[in-house]
Fold this protein.
Amino acid sequence: MMESQLVMQQEDFDRVLAIIQKLVRDANAKGIFVVDKAGQLIAEAGEMLGIDSTSLASLTAGCVAATGGLAKIVGEEEFPIHFHQGQSDNLHMTLVGDRMILVVIFDERSSLGLVRLRVKKAGNELAKIFEEIRKKAETEVQTQGSPFAEITDDDIDNLFSD
């Protein structure tokens, strides 16, 4: 089954952003990123806004996919929590729902225990929001059909003609 494209309205994005901004404060994190399993950055918060978030999102999705393959080899469906410890920064990744990844970057100002505690609550809140978005999109497709259904090949040709 092909997954539908995520279409997020401004009010949904604002709700996601509010949750991750609160998580930055509550977990004393350096940065929070919400990434989909396809490697698209959905939202970010914290003091790490200047990093290459496109690469971070892509590599996060790749890491989760690779670890998912390892999980299947050892008889697990997937590993929902990933932790990478560095000399100064640590990376905590948690699967949220069936298609999102919550990434928390933190240093010595916080602890793994605090991050895990705060991520659990924020992850549940995010999962509810993304489930609402999915249901809303399904309802719109059922009632309105595809938003591209009325576009014809002639419309596309006319758009790109000189």
About this structure: The domain at 10-160 is CATH 3.30.450.30 (Beta-Lactamase). The chain is about 50% helix and 20% strand.
